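Molecular record:
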Amino acid sequence: MGMRSQPWLASEVEARALLEGFGESEDFWRLLYWGILADVRTGFGDVRCPVILAQGTADAIGSGQTPRYLLAVPGATFQYLFGAGHAPQSDSPGSILRLVRQATLRAAALSTATC
């Protein structure tokens, strides 16, 4: 399971934490089932703030989730994070910051327009 698109960049501490947290977990397969396969979306139609859904192009875990959420959240947009894995904050921190800034600016513009 790749949290990073380039796992060799992980520190020894990070690699050990992932092994103990995921690889040796008794509930790993249950987590995978409930987190991905049995995931049920409710209440997302009520979201009224800007939403940018982002996914790494090397993310094999979330590839089935993001499209479902995109359809469920009104006005949501989608952004690929090229070369990033399931934990894009490790692979593409600059891209994550850019998306947060974009969403913040959109939220500010909406609040100014509605006041």
User: Anything to note?
Assistant: The first strand starts at residue 52 and ends at 56. The CA atoms of residues 13 and 19 lie 10 Å apart.
